[in-house]
Design brief:
The radius of gyration is 17 Å and the shape is globular. The protein has one domain (5-226): L-fuculose-1-phosphate Aldolase (3-Layer(aba) Sandwich). The two termini are 28 Å apart. The protein is built from eight helices and seven strands, in the order H-E-E-E-H-E-H-E-H-H-E-E-H-H-H. It is α+β, with helices and mostly antiparallel strands. Helix 1 runs parallel beside helix 6 (177-200), helix 1 crosses helix 8 (222-234) and helix 2 (79-87) crosses helix 5. It has a seven-stranded mixed β-sheet with strand order 3-2-1-4-7-6-5. The structure holds manganese (II) ion. Manganese (II) ion is lined by residues 77, 96, 98, 143, 168-169.
């Protein structure tokens, strides 16, 4: 099945934005539930995000098997995406990254990641931490490299927007691609600000009511941020 050109283009832009905003480096991946077949998803072949082009986009099923485009090498951790799409019909896009400021919150379980400011109101509920050794034993390489690990990660994510992966990174979801990118960028920003605030003292976080009100406002304004982020990357290409 042909991959729609518009879907290829927006996924390329999302990859370039996430690289430019410091969420991705040579690693990290973003996927989109396929608009023409919602039981499949679209994602780049295994490549550094900043270099991704429209022809790199491939279609996978929810077990991580390529549909068409069989010559391209998929990401090792594609099982993160497939298993979340399979269990979360509300999810339209997923970002997995190793963004640096988030890492400390995955390894210090008694300091939860919480909304330090309005842009991260989506972090309202407790962010779960995935402990890979519970599934993969004591000597794994920390990667989600099969469907069993992907299923365990999706279970731990539950209904949340974000999951921390101990000693590895994080995964965020959204109802659509722009929302997932927004969540990934502001999760990284919130983590950085929370670390700074906690170095100063004891932060006063948003209340649950404030966080949910702010999240609702932000959800209606994502296009404004996207337009700017996309302009930045388009002008470099
Ligand atoms: Mn990873």
């Amino acid at each position: 099945m042909k991959i729609p050109d518009q879907a290829r283009a927006i996924l390329v832009t999302a990859n370039h934005i996430l690289a430019a905003q410091g969420v991705f480096d040579g690693f990290g991946h973003v996927s989109l539930r396929a608009p023409d077949d919602p039981e499949t998803f679209l994602i780049s072949r295994s490549r550094a995000p900043q270099l991704i082009e429209p022809d790199d986009i491939m279609r996978l099923d929810f077990d991580g098997a390529p549909v068409g485009d069989k010559g391209m090498k998929p990401y090792l951790e594609r099982y993160i995406h497939g298993r979340i799409y399979a269990t979360r019909p509300d999810v339209g896009a997923i970002v997995h990254s190793h963004s640096a400021s988030v890492i400390p919150f995955g390894v210090v379980a008694d300091v939860p990641l919480r909304p330090i400011y309005h842009m991260a109101g989506f972090l309202n509920e407790a962010v779960p931490i995935f402990e890979i050794s519970d599934c993969a034993g004591p000597n794994c390489d920390m990667l989600i490299r099969d469907n069993d690990l992907g299923t365990a990660l999706a279970q731990e994510l539950g209904d949340s927007t974000m999951i921390l992966m101990r000693g590895h990174g994080s995964t965020v979801v959204g109802p659509d691609l722009k929302a997932a990118v927004f969540h990934a960028i502001y999760a990284e920003m919130n983590a950085r600000l929370q670390l700074q605030a906690q170095a100063l003292g004891t932060p006063r976080f948003l209340t649950s009511g404030e966080a949910s009100a702010a999240a609702k406002t932000n959800a209606a304004q994502i296009d404004r941020a996207w337009e700017l982020w996309a302009l930045d990357v388009d002008s470099q290409s």
